[in-house]
Amino acid sequence: MDQLLKNLVRYLSEVTGLAVIAKPMNSDNLPYFLVRQYALYQLTIGGTPFTAAFLQEEADFKPAQFLKHMRKVPSVKVNELCIVAQSLPTYVRKRLIEKGISFVIPSVQMYLPALGMDLRSRAVRQKPLTVDRFSPATQVVLICWLLGRIEGDVTPLELSKRLEYSAMTMSRAVDELEVSKVAYVERSGRERRVSFAGDRQAIWAEVWPRMRNPVSRVVRIFENKLPRENAVPAGITALSLRTLLNEPVCPEYAISRDTWKAMDKAGVDIIPVEEPGTCLLQVWCYAPKHLQVDEGVDPFSLFLSLQGTNDERIEMALEDMMGQLI
Asked: Is the dihedral of CA 39, 41, 46, 48 positive or negative?
C-alpha cells in the first residue's frame, strides 16, 4: 500500500508536471466491508481535488458495485472519484472510461478527464514488489497444491482451466507466488511454468501468516433454503467431522460470493435471531466447493476461518487436525 502510494505520487508528478498531494481520509465511521476493499485518500493534482480509492482487493473489483459503495459515503463526491490500482484488466478499464470514472495505474495508464488527460503506456505489466496478503485466487492455488491436487509444474493457462479463473488472474497469482519465493517460475519464450519450492510443511509455515480468512460474511437462513449443490459444511460443523469436537446445535455451511448473489437476488430471507430449523451460512471470497475434502470444506481454509477463536476446545481441535495434516 505504501509503495503504491509512492508510485502514484511519483508517476503523477512526472507525467503532469503538477504538484501532487495525497492525505489519508478518516475511515473510523466507514463500514468494515468498505475499509476492507478500499483505502480512501484526499488527492490533489495541481489544485484539482479527487477522492482516491486504492483498491485492496483488485481481483474482486466491479465498477458498478464500486459506485454503489461510494454513494454510501457522505464525504465522497462521486464525480471526484479516482481509482488507484497496481493493475486492472483491459475490460474493466474500458468500463471505467465509459462511465467517466478517473483511474490511475502507475506507470501503465492514467485516465483523468477532469484534467483532460488520457495517457497509456506500453510499459510491461508490473509485478508486485512484495505480498503482505495473498489474493483469494493465489490462496486457492496454494491450497490446491497443499492438498496434493497440483503436481509437477503448471502454466497459468492450465491453472485457469483447472480452477475456473481467468488466465489473467492466474498470471497474477503466479506473480505473487514468484515474488513471495514460495514457487519457482521457469520461462520458455512467452510461456511460464510454476512449481513449488519445498515440502508441504515448509510451504505452509511460510505462507499461512499471509493467508486470509476466506469468510467475508455470515448470515442465518432456514436450512431448507440451502442450495445443497453449492454448500459445503464449514466452521464448527466441519471441524466436528474431522475431530472429536461435538457438532454445534446450529449447523454451519460455506458458499461462494456468486452463489450468495444468486440467493440474494432470488429473495432468500435472512433470519436475524436463532430459530429452530436455521443454519449459519458463511459467504467465502472463493468457492469452497472447488476445494472440498470429503464431507466438509478443506482443512486449510477451515483452519484460517477459525483463527482467533477464543475457545480452548476449538483451539485444541484445530491443533489436532493440523497435526495430522502437516
From this structure: positive
Q: Where are the alpha helices (DSSP H) in 38-189?
A: 63-70, 90-99, 136-146, 156-163, 167-179
Question: Does residue 65 sit in helix, strand or coil?
Answer: helix
| pTM confidence score | 0.63
Q: Which residues pair with 252 in a beta bridge?
A: 280
pLDDT digits (tens, 9 = 90+) for 187-224: 877 788 999 877 888 899 989 999 999 999 999 999 99
**Long-range contact pairs involving 27-31 (C-beta distance under 8 Å, separation at least 24):** 30/73, 31/72
Beta strand 20-24 pairing with 109-112: unpaired
Residue 149, number of CB atoms within 10 A of its CB: 14
Residue 223 shares a structural domain with residue 265: yes
Residue 128 lies in a domain: no
CA separation for the pair 294, 228 (Å, rounded): 15
130 occurs within a structural domain: no
CA–CA gap between residue 259 and residue 230 (Å, rounded): 7
